[in-house]
Write a structure and sequence with these properties.
- The protein has about 500 residues and is an alpha/beta fold.
- The chain has 3 domains: about 100 residues, no CATH class; about 250 residues, no CATH class; about 110 residues.
- Helix content is about 40%, strand content about 10%.
- The protein contains 19 helices and 11 strands.
- The strands form 3 sheets. Strands 2-5-6-1-7 form a 5-stranded parallel sheet, with helices on both faces.
- β9 and β10 form a beta hairpin.
- It is globular, with a radius of gyration of 27 Å.
């Protein structure tokens, strides 16, 4: 039984896909994964920690005789060389399309030349693959070139006896990479034609891009231009592959907050037809954080199949406020796998703490769930820093105001009162600060039920389309930040209901 082995369990997995030893065995199919795998969607967006990298890793590590993939991450990518490929004299959003297309096509050529054992699959592919091989070897000295070196300025692309180009201005049938932007449309046309001809229509091919948020800054307009160029290049190649009857996708993984900042002509079309979001549910039949953890409980305990949540967490006794332990934990997450895994790991740590010689409970009880809150809250605050810092550089000042407010629930007047006490904020708008905190789900606001009756809190992480209401009279800090911001439950609206501002119960009469 699992409850007899809790002290022997190291953890329930890592919060980062790169460090999660259970990722492969506990991967849970998500519509975002199945849509990308079926070439139905090529743009996968989601909050940091929602599982994008897990899907990326699944796509690039699946080993099947008829599935081929290549993954790009950008922690060491030479962006400076890529920037040299920007095309001038055209709309900003289209300056990097052709450099991305070139990178993608060469990456795909690597798969065809080195991995796909079915090649050449017919006579047309034989000729096209020969052209690709001649071009790649003559230009880069290898059938398997280092893609981080593609755009080094001293490189020379050689076309003699390989790709058929109609560029009268090329002398000696070579092009210096630093001059590639002048000829890249024709080069891409020829490379792409050879690649698409070579693709086996019975096979699946993927070129995937992850970690695009590394180095992100709102101060560099080129960053947005690069991302837009990649998305448009992915769109063009996805359409070209479908028209050619080939199963090929360029799958782009991007944080949703960054995608919101991008503005380009075809964005709505791509959003509606080619984008899928990685989201998880608290309840329902599938894609729940509970099901995700039950799979992990089974794996770490050595059980065959999943282990029910109730075999690990004692749900026979409710938490304060008549909550289940599962609901209590979910309320402190952004409904992301990363958050749920982290909280459960902290519960395990609290469970293992010395207990004065007393025999530990066979399951996680209320005390261990509550004991895990401070360390989890500190983690969530660090996670927030990763997401918000580059969008709202002064956000820590906003958090200091919330600390001074002191309560989970507060009015805009109370926020303004503390805001005005900070000299560093005197030239800034407290209303704008509340809006920015709402955008990153640090706070939600109370919305009356209108004609339908009832009221509820509106949270951005639960509804990506939710808009800030500047007329809202009651706000609530996300419960996950309570300990790290040293807040109490109460406030003018509900102190009387809940028994005073010091009544630290996790209960509210209005849905979270």
């Amino acid at each position: 039984m699992l409850e007899l082995q809790l002290h022997e369990i190291k953890d329930f997995g890592g919060i980062d896909a790169d460090a999660d030893e259970l990722l492969r065995d506990c991967f849970q199919d998500h519509p975002a994964y199945t849509a990308a795998k079926a070439h139905e969607r090529f743009l996968v967006i989601g909050r940091k920690g929602s599982g994008k990298t897990a899907i990326f890793k699944r796509l690039i590590t699946e080993r099947q005789p008829n599935v081929f993939s290549f993954g790009h991450t950008f922690d060491d990518y030479p962006w400076a060389y890529h920037d040299l490929q920007a095309q001038g004299g055209i709309p900003e959003e289209r300056r990097y399309i052709h450099s991305w297309r070139y990178l993608i096509n060469i990456g795909l050529a690597k798969l065809l030349l080195n991995v796909d054992q079915s090649q050449p699959w017919d006579e047309a592919a034989l000729e096209a693959l020969g052209d690709l091989e001649n071009f790649v070897v003559d230009s880069y000295g290898s059938r398997d070139p280092d893609l981080t070196q593609l755009f080094q300025p001293q490189k020379k692309l050689r076309f003699k006896g390989s790709l058929k180009l109609s560029i009268a201005s090329i002398e000696g049938e070579t092009v210096l990479v630093k001059e590639l932007p002048l000829h890249i449309q024709e080069v891409n046309r020829s490379v792409q034609e050879s690649v698409l001809t070579s693709l086996n229509p019975e096979h699946d091919y993927y070129v995937c891009f992850d970690q695009l948020d590394l180095g992100f800054t709102t101060d560099d307009p080129r960053y947005a231009q690069r991302l837009i160029g990649l998305i448009l290049a992915a769109s063009d190649l996805w359409k070209a592959a479908r028209d050619a009857g080939k199963r090929f996708s360029v799958v782009v993984f991007l944080r949703d907050d960054i995608y919101e900042l991008l503005h380009f002509e075809d964005k709505n079309k791509i959003t509606e037809n080619n984008m899928v979001k990685v989201e998880w549910n608290q309840g329902g039949d599938d894609l729940t954080l509970k099901a995700l953890m039950e799979r992990r409980f089974g794996q770490v305990s050595g059980s065959e199949g999943n282990v029910p949540w109730g075999d690990v967490f004692d749900e026979t006794k409710e938490m304060p406020g008549r909550q289940t332990k599962y609901a209590h934990i979910c309320d402190r997450t952004f409904l992301r796998p990363r958050d749920m895994i982290k909280y459960c790991n902290e519960v395990l740590v609290a469970y293992k703490e010395p207990s004065n010689g007393e025999q530990p409970e066979p399951k996680f009880d209320n005390a261990t769930v509550i004991a895990a809150r401070p360390t989890y809250s500190a983690y969530l605050l660090r996670e927030l820093d990763d997401e918000i810092a580059k969008h709202v550089p002064q956000y820590k000042e906003y958090l200091e105001v919330l600390k001074r407010v002191g309560s989970i629930h507060f009015s805009p007047a109370r926020f303004e009162e503390e805001w005005l006490k900070r000299a560093s904020l005197k030239d800034m708008s407290s209303g704008k600060a509340l809006e920015e905190l709402f955008e990153f789900s640090v706070i939600g606001y109370l919305k009356s039920g209108g004609g339908g009756g009832g009221s509820k809190y509106v949270w951005r992480y639960l509804d990506a389309g939710a808009k800030f209401d500047p007329a809202a009279e009651t706000f609530r800090v996300h419960a996950g930040f309570k300990e790290s911001l040293d807040l109490v439950y109460g406030g003018s609206r509900n102190a009387e209901q809940l028994g005073g501002a010091d009544f630290d119960a996790d209960y509210d009469d209005i849905p979270f």
